[in-house]
Amino acid sequence: MKTNTLPPALLAAAFLTAPLLGHGQGAPGGGRAATATAAIPRAAAGRITGTVTEAATGKPVSYATVSVLDAAGKAINGGVAGDDGKFVLPGIPAGTYTVQITFLGFKDETRPGVVVATGGTVALGSIKLAASAQALKEVVVTGRKQLIEERVDRTIYNADVDKTTAGGDATDVLKRVPLLSVDLDGNVSLRGSSNIRVLINNKPSTIAANSIADALKQIPADQIQTVEVITSPSAKYDAEGSGGIINIVLKKDSNLHGGSLGVDVGAGLRATNLGLNGSYRTGKMAFSLGGFGRASYNQPGSFENSQMTYDTTRTFLSSNRQTADTRRNDAFGRYTLGWDYDIDKHNS
């Protein structure tokens, strides 16, 4: 069968004329031919210009806020003035508006009845802002000390910040100080060394010299402000504290006249205990009392002993059995009374 093929030039002409033929074809039913509708041109908008200055000095106010409000108070346009205080607000439809200028530290300036014509420019000129003095409320800044402070030669533990040791003594405070260890008997060691020296308010105490454990029990925890752990003592300290120095700094009001006494009593059917923790100061002289005692009584017990006798041939000869009921009564305790006198600022 013979096939007819159209030339390439004819095919190209067909594709180019097809859109034109479709566009000029009438609508079904003999209607009018469809044509493209051009957009209605929008009326040219106007703009508002001006310069914001200080009323007192005439210097420009940089970055002042300029708002254009309609009759209902709704913002339809706005902007920010430049470094030189000048502003240009384009794209504003024709109408009557209110221009408002605001900036922190100045009174708001309002220009009502600004008429913008179609395609026109409204120059507001220099808009002067008057300074506004405002009385601010008091600002209270509260700072809180850190629990632990690290210095070049020492570690400081702020005991007055830690409320968990309330009601205890200095032993309870030292248990929470870094680098320190306190055993069940109240003995203190610094990084494993017991060759330490305890100072109170940067000076030695005769009470602490006799027994550190007893001295710590005599200092209430709520009277301690800070505990300083000096790991590398300088030459001004004695060789006694080669392992380190522990300086317990008491609160300033701890030197006031007065005293305190704490009594801890427990009683039962089998035992009774009594704990005392007190101090009294008058001027440069101070007394301290501390200790703990326990008495046990009416603790029941029993005793039994059996003895059997045989001869050399393992023949049973006799037996002896002893039994007894016991009641145990005992008491133990340790109480100390200390006296301290401040000779001067550095010695006591």
Features:
348 residues, mainly beta, Ferric Hydroxamate Uptake Protein, Chain A, domain 1, 3 domains, 6-stranded mixed beta sheet, 19 strands, disordered N terminus
Proportion of residues in extended strands: over 45%
Q: In which order are the strands of the major sheet placed?
A: 8-9-14-15-12-13
And the CATH topology of the largest domain?
A: Ferric Hydroxamate Uptake Protein, Chain A, domain 1
Number of domains: 3
Uncertain residue ranges: 1-43
The number of strands is 19
CATH superfamily of the largest domain: TonB-dependent receptor, plug domain
Q: Class of the largest domain, according to the CATH hierarchy?
A: Mainly Beta
Overall spatial form = elongated
pLDDT averaged over residues: 78
CATH architecture of the largest domain: Beta Complex
Rounded to the nearest angstrom, the radius of gyration is 49 Å
Short summary of the structure?
This protein has 348 residues and is mainly beta. It has four helices and 19 strands. The strands form five sheets. It has a six-stranded mixed β-sheet with strand order 8-9-14-15-12-13.
